[in-house]
Amino acid sequence: MFVDKAEIILVAGSGGHGGVSFRREKYVPMGGPDGGHGGHGGSIILMADNGLRTLVEFKYKRKHKAENGENGTSGQSSGKSGEDLIIKVPVGTLVKDKETGRVICDLSENGQKYQIVDGGRGGRGNMNFATATRQAPRFAQGGVRGQERTIILELKLLADVGLIGFPNVGKSTLLSVITKAKPKIANYHFTTIIPNLGVVEWRNFDPFVIADIPGLIEGAHEGTGLGDQFLRHVERTKLLIHLLDASGSEGREPLDDFKKINYELEKYNAKLAQRVQIVALNKVDLISDQSELYTLKGELEDLGYEAFIISAVTGQGLNELLSRTIQLLDEIGEVEPIFDFEPEEETIYTPEFKEKQFTVKKVDNAFVVEGEFFERLINSVNFEDLDSIGFFQRVLKDKGVFEELEKMNIKDDDTVRIDEIEFEYYK
Length: 427
Description:
The protein is α/β, with parallel strands linked by helices. The protein is built from ten helices and 18 strands. The chain has helices spanning 57-60, 171-178, 227-230, 254-268, 270-273, 291-302, 318-332, 372-379, 386-398, 401-407; strands at 5-11, 44-49, 63-65, 85-90, 93-97, 103-107, 113-117, 148-155, 161-164, 196-200, 208-212, 239-245, 276-282, 307-309, 359-363, 366-370, 415-418, 421-424. The strands form four sheets. A six-stranded mixed β-sheet has the order 10-11-9-12-13-14, sandwiched between helices. A five-stranded mixed β-sheet has the order 3-1-8-5-6, with no helix packed on it. Strands 15-16-17-18 form a four-stranded mixed β-sheet. The longest helix has 15 residues, at 254-268. The protein is elongated and about 105 Å long. The termini are far apart. Pfam families: DUF1967, GTP1_OBG, MMR_HSR1. This is GTPase Obg. Residues 350-427 form the OCT domain. GTP binds at residues 165-172, 190-194, 212-215, 282-285, 311-313.
């Protein structure tokens, strides 16, 4: 199954919690705290692999999660960090953020990697919280939750040349003749429902990759027919070969077809329409009187396009067409990307605890405080230790939680709920 677009959810590993422990050795009466750090959570890395040709596996597995870091333990032992998760995608995969639509990265080279979500930091153990006045801290720092994001993968075939044209003009036949590809061929519309790739090895020239793009029709840029699903696959091509049915066997006018397809390209992407394009007048073996054929060729050349008379069935004109294609590819060289984006900076995920990173609402008779910050805070608190509870209260005050509660007219003895913790409020 050829799948060229998929939406997946990525969850990096969370950092392990710092350990709470104390040295207990026979001849060390004042051992003190020795809880180690939590391990860092695993990150998720996307890697381009030219052994893959489709995004089909992401249709069946949408959520991917990296390993969490392990908690710190006694003896100042740090927890093991979670393993990074490497997700392989086909070469030519464009990665977008679902929420913003922004292009994150373009994995266009084999082995190229991009760290898409970062694992959370591990928390510090209680050995880090000992002071001259607090020599036996019974609390440690909680680990940071790993990043989570939903992304869209779009596969854009890496072809040097794209074959475009209306359905049933002979694109699949031409591809089967000049390459070893075996596309489905039949005398009805839309026999090609997936893009086909083939490698052209012509004489002693360097080989090039050609893609047969499923037939376009009017309105393709708006989603009519199959066009909008596959136009993206011509975005990376350096050269377009526009096939026309010169015989008119489908009851259409070749020059009219040519103008309609170019209109669709222009509407889809103006840069794409500016790609170098040559025209192949196909199915000439079906024409008995070829005098009008040269009139059509002249009209196309007047519009600024090189036109070649060919028959994919008999091989007529293929030598001239391919020789010119190879020459143009060498002249064109590298092309400007169709899509514009500024790659994200790869940064370590270090969330800041900003003021009012929380909400307060009244549910039944309780004041419910919510925010990602509190999960880590609660994991850092030992509610059986007075020092640790004092630390918890100071943080709530510093972050403005108490102030916000008072704005909502909280009274003594009212219930406050934070995550799974409930307590009675006293000013």
